Amino acid sequence: MKCLRLLTLLPLCALLSACLTGQQDPPFTLTLAHMNDTHSQFDPVNAELKGPLFGKQGETDTLYTRLGGYPRLLTMTKAYQAEALAKNQPLLLLHGGDAWQGSGYFKLNEGMANAELLSQFGFDAMALGNHEFDLDNQKLARFIQGVNFPVLAANLDSRDDPDLSQASNLKPFVVYAFDGNQKSPVTDLAHLPADKQLVAVIGLVLEDMANISPNVGKLRFAKEVASAQATVDLLQARGINRIVALTHIGNARDLALAAKVNGLDAIVGGHSHSLLGDFSNVGWGKTGEYAALVTNPDGVGLTCVVQAGSYAQAIGLARVSFDAQGRVIACKGQNQLLASRNFFADPARQQRLDKTRSQQAGKFIDAQPNLVTVDEDPRLRGIIDSHYKPALEQAYGPVIGTLPAPLQNARRPGDNGSDSHGSDVAPLVAEGQYFWANTPQVQALTGGPVDFALLAVGGVRADLPAGELRQGEASLSLLPFKNPLSVLTLSGTEVRALLTETITATLPASAHAGKFPYGGHLRYTFKETEAGKAGHLTRLQWQTAEGQWQDLVNGRRYRVVTNAYSANGNDGWQALARAQRQSAESQSAERVDLAWVAGQLTAFPVLAVAKHGEQLGAVYGPDKALDCKAANVDCGTDAASFVDYVRYARPLVTALDEETVTLLRAGQADAP
């Protein structure tokens, strides 16, 4: 079944509306096991857990361990599947999208390593995530056809695309017929199996996908709400009343979807990396409610909304109960972090806990409902170690620095137990951009020094563990997108507008926080005045080359370095596109993008920012256009700037001495 256009669904729903009346099903409980945004994290990631770990109530201890990874996820998945089989319970295993990107494994193997490993899980469906579009549609089609489960997107029209139009495994929805734990896909909606419990899973991709990725080809993306309602109406007209939406649109939009669409019983989400539930018991805070029940527009129906974090650290399990009319009457469950059984006393994870403390730590973990120790699946670990890890180790290359302690990349201040200053990694990346842009070689191309750097945290894809830092980790894992750096001129007013817009957009707990801004040689304080909705900057300063902090002057123009994706105004940074449009109109545009051509660092003057299809992009001169896909072009100046910064200026990699970002939530006292 090819992806259907929205317009083809609507008349069919009208023709079949008579099927809606009088249909009842026996009470039914469906178990949903789910993960999302696993981002090629085949190996476990370093993590810190905080609490009264060693038996002394009132004291907070820190435990260093590792979480997740594909083999550990598979072990937990198998446990859920075995339990459902033993109890004869219906179960769906779902992936909320963005299996791609995130580690060197993806950069070296593109989508096919994920295809092999994910096919070991027994997924019933996967949503199409935005990072699945990071290569090209031919490679995406190869991945979709290479997995043994359907990939879903009901609001995607692929008919004009030469690659995805041929991908038979890409579908708008799937329907499963359950007899207890046994399930089978329904291939003919005109002949539904009798005496079976029917459940449909529909997929939704970001409706503004064309604004996010330059690689969508001739695909067309329909509105999420209208597509969801049309697909629900179609399924209900056929007599299928239990419907799960598998989405990759972010938790905020999931909650809005539930409030705007009738007939969705559950939404299993992704994209915003929301580890829903209260994890303050291990020092990770609370992002939002797991299994929140949202009332539909008809005032009767309820939709259960879940999401399971990111980077293969956790898995969610929800049980959705239906009455005889197919309406949701209850939804319960939680996310669980999956921990290694190896506990360490030091952030470098060199010193194991002694037996007594290890037992105390294990006892603490056993007492937590949202944290469990899990062994890795040995077969999957063997595939990774034999097929993929040797090439990754070789690609990482030489050591460029050392971290005495791990550095966390919490996207937004307060996430994952972070303080009001947020990421320790993003400010270092921004400082690296500032350092590199001010080297003599770069200044010779750009016309002089820059005043500060701006960075959207979504481009920074990893924490930095304690120990050695190798060159390839920067380009393969930390900054994998090969974004060229841009030097442009902005007024103080334009910088202020950018920060205010991007911070305000990420204030809701459910918001996708990738647009949250950090700076190098720039610091700010933002005070929230209305929880989750509004606030303002109370401090905005830049640091001179002599080390003095000065207030940004609205009317003064500053030279700024950022990456070209942000400079073009993508992913919520539209303020930069507006600024360049105004500069072009006043004939004061000053921007160059930087990349290597045949090994030679080259400047590409940008004349304007304009829409290329649905995405904002740079307009270059006719004789000097930057083509990052050309064989002799390397656009990875973003990662190179960090490598050079560490190698030549900060080989002992620690957090900056002074915090540059402060987000004061409503009701929180002002910083001194």
Automatic annotation (TrEMBL):
PROSITE patterns on file: 5_NUCLEOTIDASE_2, PROKAR_LIPOPROTEIN
Molecular function GO terms recorded: 5'-nucleotidase activity; metal ion binding; nucleotide binding; UDP-sugar diphosphatase activity
Source species, domain of life: Bacteria
Keywords: Hydrolase, Nucleotide-binding, Signal
GO cellular component term, pick one: outer membrane-bounded periplasmic space
Family per similarity comment: Belongs to the 5'-nucleotidase family.
Protein's UniProt name: Bifunctional metallophosphatase/5'-nucleotidase
